[in-house]
Amino acid sequence: VQLQASGGGLVQAGGSLRLSCAASGRTFSNYDMGWFRQAPGKEREFVAAISWNGSSTGGRFTISRDNAKNTVYLQMNSLKPEDTAVYSCAASSDAKKWDYWGQGTLVTSPA
């Protein structure tokens, strides 16, 4: 599976942004999908995930998927400066490990 994340950018604190991750190469609907982020100088952390059948987990942000478009989204509202990070998407075929990773998209929310 090839993953291409997009939609990052500069947004003021309190603003919103929607990230997209387009998948290709395999049957997208068979995979659980996830979003992760890594801030400068910090470890990568989990943001949200959605299973192949649409069950989601996460915190402040909303993950969704459109299997017809082979795309998973991350809707981020009320952004804070601490949300500044590179956001990456990942795919899992067995719910045990993340098999495939996209290249990441930078989200910057200055104070």
Question: What are the main properties of this structure?
Answer:
seven-stranded mixed beta sheet, four-stranded antiparallel beta sheet, globular
Chain oligomer state: single chain
What is the string of SSEs from the N terminus onward?
Answer: EEEEEEEEEEE
What is the alpha-carbon Rg in Å?
13 Å
Q: Between the first and last Cα atoms, what is the distance in angstroms?
A: 36 Å
Report on this model:
The protein has no helices and eleven strands. The protein is mainly beta and 111 residues long. The strands form two sheets. Strands 2, 4, 5, 6, 9, 10 and 11 form a seven-stranded mixed sheet that branches. Strands 1-3-8-7 form a four-stranded antiparallel sheet, with no helix packed on it. It is globular, with a radius of gyration of 13 Å. The chain starts with a strand and ends with a strand.
Topology (SSEs and partners):
Elements: E1 2-6, E2 9-10, E3 17-24, E4 32-38, E5 45-50, E6 56-58, E7 62-66, E8 71-76, E9 85-92, E10 100-101, E11 105-108
Parallel strand pairs: 2-11
Antiparallel strand pairs: 1-3, 3-8, 4-5, 4-9, 5-6, 7-8, 9-10, 9-11
